[in-house]
């Protein structure tokens, strides 16, 4: 007998999917208001999914991590990231891969990227012209793509860099609106009818990207040898170099296809997410003069010789980033968790194969946790601490975002660098709304800004200026 799932939505499945793709937040508002903390929806490929907006039930999921599969619920991402992606793995394979990928994104290693982030940001802000509007999201995308190319792929210049950069931008922009995002959700649209069909174009770009990445990996495996000189041995500090020298417990390195798919996973997981969050932060900072003034005073208080890592520890800057991530979850829900055995969640037993999806959005807007939740108030993060199931912009448990530390470092250093150098203003007074962009949510219109002044040198971190 089919188990009874909580608050099943009665609308036809095809209508649920269309609403979900078009506006996942309205969808959640609509059904959570009617059905409280959790409800069950039907998503084409996955089938029925219990959406959880209750921190206690989400805590039950995170604390029973080993009872759930996640990778097989992410199959929808395979056309983008490839079948050897961490996101699609489960069990021992996932644990092994995470161990291999983790070191470049944590601890001391992050410090080595800090100055690069500042320099890349400077290159982009130097191109802004006084009085000329620009779209914040596009500018932030330039910064985060450059960061991924340099820090992750280890590419800075040359033919391969020149080819990859526009290709990746074009590939990522293929799902830049709710309508174009449908391509990822409706299987019947995924027909490769040659370069004139959207899916055909998507696949064509994917093949080109694969070929370029494979060539890069091949070159690194067999470094160019100059006659009469020993081959270069020392690996670079970029993430690809570190991935290539990493070995698992059995002493095995990562295979070429694995390296390629993980590079694309990092690109898809790390690029849109960070640039979108930065655009939202700039939007809110420039809507609230008080926030702007406090932030500038904090940055200026550091004095001239502060290091990027000192900037990263500023409490108000941290609170601004946290509040941005609270109000604007880049993913409307985190990855689906599929029960491998009967589990108790939120005080109720569920059969094996039940699928759960915690919603960042509904939890981050709970008035009992975040009073005046629709207002941007960084101070709330100075006043109290939230538990991992009350605040989880980066997900939780063993699937927590691999790049959460790098993402936060990037956000803080980019904001500090931009605000220290440029006085900006919103170029448009109209409120900006969230809209779907592929699997993520982004600001509609991308937040138009304009530079009103270049800030003169002030007592602020010299390495940031
Ligand atoms: C503001 C920026 C970012 C946000 C909000 C974000 C958010 C998330 C979320 C919500 C998840 C799902 C976690 C879960 O289901 O529990 C995730 C997974 C992931 N993220 Fe991020 N992310 C960001 C930046 C990055 C960056 C910069 C990287 C890479 C350098 C990255 C790499 C990944 C990877 C590889 C996964 C899959 C982890 C796994 O399956 O084990 N993310 N991220």
Task: Explain how this protein is built.
With 465 residues, the protein is α+β, with helices and mostly antiparallel strands. The chain has one domain: Cytochrome p450 (Orthogonal Bundle). It contains 18 helices and 12 strands. It has helices spanning 13-22, 24-35, 55-63, 78-81, 91-101, 108-125, 136-152, 159-172, 178-185, 198-221, 239-245, 256-287, 289-300, 308-312, 315-327, 360-364, 380-383, 404-421; strands at residues 38-43, 47-52, 68-69, 134-135, 337-339, 343-345, 348-350, 355-358, 422-426, 434-437, 440-443, 448-454. The strands form 4 sheets. It has a 5-stranded mixed sheet. A 3-stranded antiparallel sheet has the order 4-12-9. Helix 6 (108-125) runs parallel beside helix 18. The longest helix is centred in the middle third of the chain and has 32 residues, at 256-287. The chain is globular and about 65 Å long. Bound molecules: protoporphyrin IX containing FE (HEM). Protoporphyrin IX containing FE (HEM) binds next to helix 12 and helix 18.
Q: Point out poorly predicted stretches.
A: 459-465
Approximately how much helix is present in the residues? 40-55%
**Main beta sheet strand tally, sense and closure:** 5 strands, mixed
Taking the alpha carbons of the first and last residues, their distance comes to 66 Å
Question: What letter string, H or E per element, gives the SSE order?
Answer: HHEEHEHHHEHHHHHHHHHEEEEHHHEEEE
Total strands: the figure is 12
